[in-house]
């Protein structure tokens, strides 16, 4: 409990000293994840890679697992040439859909690629996906990630055996490239920092209800229940994570047994760039406050290879980025394990 008290004393994002994550005996066997844009891609690849423990994913404005792994990179896996090929495919086929005619978004190709990784033990067996729940969202005013790209994620999950009833595909409305809320943030149609928009749509609630089922009414997350922690304890330097991440722990979860949700920010959406907009205004912590749920907000750091502080869904940390052994994947898995101790 000393570790818990130390972490919670950080009192949100105003703290100057970070500690390790609190050991909360959390239930990490029913983990769920969500994210926007690069965070949506990361949520999807983390969910597929760790499907034995990750039971659901909320994917906002992002496409299917492995979309950016190009044929050229697999044929000539030499870094950084392979990275350049993946980057081109990510920008032209996995966001704007320019390369769809070349099969970039083909569900059968992507499933075959995932099956090879599963057969090699690099990701969990794909059979786990048959019981997964998947929420997908595309806003009508999103000019960053095309609707067809998000539809391709749905096609991938259906091909992988996820029942149609286990997929909630939401599109339309006025949403831009952002998390949607029922009252906080920018005008709904915008696609600009902090990428949290007031669309009169409680997306956090929609995601968590679909992934977990019936929930208690939304509460209010208190400032004192947000804690900073030292991400360097869990990540290698090649993961290029920020020094500090954030965890929200409601009082009911300090004695153990709570579930865990991981929220992956989008590009240009880190604490360093948008402050508390994601951690405190996206709505996830408010729902967690009354539903025995811990929310982990890991943070990426901008770098020369990743100037917009995106999560790695195209290989800038290495060409094993889709696997459980990838630097960022390992780091987040270690954070979750720490909460379960």
Enumerate the strands of the largest sheet in spatial order, edge to edge or round the barrel.
Answer: 4-3-2-1-10-11-9-8
Largest sheet: 8 strands, mixed
Number of helices: 11
Q: Low-confidence stretches at least 5 residues in length (pLDDT < 50)?
A: 1-17
Order of helices and strands: HEHEHHHEHEEEEHEEEHHHEH
Distance separating the two termini: 12 Å
Radius of gyration, whole Å: 18 Å
Q: Tell me the structural class.
A: alpha/beta
Q: Care to give the gist of this entry?
A:
With 341 residues, the protein is of the alpha/beta class. The protein contains eleven helices and eleven strands. It has helices at residues 2-8, 38-49, 71-75, 81-93, 107-119, 147-159, 203-212, 271-274, 277-281, 284-289, 327-340, and strands at residues 27-36, 54-60, 133-139, 167-172, 179-181, 186-187, 196-198, 226-230, 244-248, 259-264, 293-297.
